[in-house]
Amino acid sequence: MIPKRVFDALKLRAGDFVEVSAEGGRLQMRPKRLVDIEDEVLMAGEAVAVRRGEAEIKAGRTKSWRTVKDELGR
């Protein structure tokens, strides 16, 4: 359970997801959001990543999933 003051400070709502990490004996908690496939609204950073990915595809710099899995040793 997340303490109310932390919940409020992170501006969370019931059912929200958070990412929790530990480093040096401290916990860090960040809100995470899931994007619905129907949601057409992207945050600025997401839009940049999508444009970069589209440019890579148009330039022919792609690999098949099988190749990527092989390179990862899976």
Secondary structure elements and pairings:
Elements: H1 4-9, E1 17-23, E2 26-32, H2 44-58, H3 65-71
Q: Can you describe this structure?
A:
This protein has helices spanning 4-9, 44-58, 65-71, and strands at residues 17-23, 26-32. It has 74 residues and is an alpha+beta fold. It folds into 2 domains: 1-34, no CATH class; 37-74, no CATH class. The longest helix is centred in the C-terminal third of the chain and has 15 residues, at 44-58. The protein starts with a helix and ends with a helix. The mean pLDDT is 87.
Question: How would you summarize what this structure contains?
Answer:
The chain is α+β, with helices and mostly antiparallel strands and 74 residues long. The protein is 38% helix and 19% strand.
Series of secondary-structure elements, N-terminal to C-terminal: HEEHH
Provide the domain count. Answer: 2
Structural class given helices, strands, pairing?
alpha+beta
Biggest sheet: strand arrangement: 1-2
What's the pLDDT, averaged over the residues?
A: 87
Portion of residues in helices? 25-40%
- Low-confidence stretches are none
Q: Give Rg in angstroms.
A: 18 Å
Biggest sheet record: 2 strands, antiparallel
Number of strands: 2
| Outline | extended
Give the DSSP E fraction (strand runs of 2 or more residues): 15-25%
Tell me the distance between the termini.
36 Å
Query: What count of helical segments does DSSP give?
Result: 3
Question: Key features?
Answer:
2 strands; alpha+beta; 74 residues; two-stranded antiparallel sheet
